[in-house]
Automatic annotation (TrEMBL):
Source organism phylogeny: Eukaryota, Metazoa, Chordata, Craniata, Vertebrata
Region (Disordered): 1-33, 109-148
Biased composition (Basic and acidic residues): 1-31, 109-118
Domain of life (superkingdom): Eukaryota
Protein name: Uncharacterized protein
Length: 148
């Protein structure tokens, strides 16, 4: 049985579509969703299954992104190619040089003289250590007549 309709429900469909889109945008903003910036040539880390509570979330050696189609990425390492979703990889950040490998002529920030021409804070601490602050201790009031 059909119900006769005198009106066009196009405006209702349009309102429904806009409300759904606004809801999606709000949810993305609330969850901090961002578009992936991974592109071919980037180095990425691949997520690995959790074997136990001590295993890491991502593999330690990076892959190179060979190709990207939408949410699908093709990764390559040592001639082996893997295809996975872009949500299972994260951008690999090059590690900074460790502190020991700095050149000798590099001057540490804290060892530089400040505006007054004085040496940095590390020199003060190394030569003389100030005692830690402590509160003033008093005997309880009910023990004022106690003699030691």
């Amino acid at each position: 049985m059909e119900v006769p309709s005198d009106h066009d429900d196009g405006h209702v469909r349009l309102a429904d579509t806009t409300n759904k889109e606004q809801g999606r945008e709000h949810a993305d903003k609330h969850h901090g969703a961002v578009h992936s910036v991974i592109k071919p040539g980037n180095k990425v880390l691949l997520q690995q299954p959790k074997h136990n509570k001590l295993s890491t979330t991502f593999e330690s050696k990076p892959y190179i992104v060979f190709e990207r189609k939408g949410n699908c990425v093709v990764l390559a390492r040592h001639g082996k190619r893997i295809q996975c979703n872009v949500s299972h990889v994260k951008q690999w950040v090059e590690a900074l040089l460790p502190r020991e490998t700095h050149r000798k002529d590099d001057v540490d920030f804290w060892d530089r003289p400040d505006e007054h021409g004085q040496e940095g804070q590390t020199a003060e601490i190394a030569g003389h250590q100030e005692p830690r602050p402590s509160r003033v201790r008093h005997a309880p009031a009910h023990l004022k007549d106690y003699v030691r």
